[in-house]
Design brief:
Order of helices and strands: HEHEEEEEHEEEHHHHEE
Number of domains: 2
CATH class of the largest domain: Alpha Beta
Strand content: 15-25%
Shape: elongated
Distance between the termini: 28 Å
Largest sheet: 5 strands, antiparallel
Structural class: alpha+beta
Number of helices: 7
Number of strands: 11
CATH topology of the largest domain: N-terminal domain of MutM-like DNA repair proteins
CATH architecture of the largest domain: Alpha-Beta Barrel
Length: 289
Amino acid sequence: MPELPEVEVVKKSLINKTQNLIVKAVKINDGRLRYKIDRYKIKKIIGLKFKKISRRSKYLLFFFNKGIVMLVHLGMTGKFFFVNSKSKKYKTSFYYDINDENDKKHDRVIFDLSNNQKLIYNDIRKFGFIKFLKNINLEQSVHLKYLGPEPLSTKFNIEYFKNYIKGKERTIKDLLMDQKFIAGLGNIYVNEILFFGGVRPDRKIKNLKNFEIQKIIKFSKKIISKAIILGGSSIKDFSSSSGKKGSFQQHFSVYGKKEENCSKTKCDGKIKKIVIANRASFFCNKCQK
């Protein structure tokens, strides 16, 4: 599943390509996504212009004139293809080569744009979704209103962290995966953050010391920033629309490294794997406490 950096990369790769383009037509090949596409609402964007694209947590938000916003969640395998005026197709995933015959089977929605360009929503497993909202009501959307602060925001600080965990009995891994606490983190990045923070994933939050909280906050910001710069990471499914491969997976220090030596200097520990809330957790048995 794409996490915050992957979605940020998709946003960045599309923003310059779609800016100020007009939707000329919409073709729905299969609207049976996680939520069925509202055919009446999607037709309302015909004739409207892409004003901007933004991201909140793992959601993409496409803003049109007339105050309409298209909210997209990519689910497990959702992705956008962009086709330029010369019919060149740009991908947003890198675990396979573009294959028009196979791709077409999973092209769920095709947006015909001005200048003979196209934006294609492709989703093999159909766990993603596309919804339409009014900009004025955006913050009240059930998908957005309960989200916690972004990890790169100033609101994600030690004061917020300590206030949130008061009286709670959860593990730190469970907390960091909770979108109500912090928006956009997922299993891959949480494993890496805790590795560099020196905290075991099964550690109880009530036992965290201030310096450990500060390290978790520090490495949340550092690792997410690095992943965005390197182009996003989700192991199989994402790349930028220019076709440049996301490379953060080449820099994993703990995720998927079961029984390998710890990569930290002066540590002779081994990477172990446990399961927390049905998700794989990797940690060093020596330097994570």
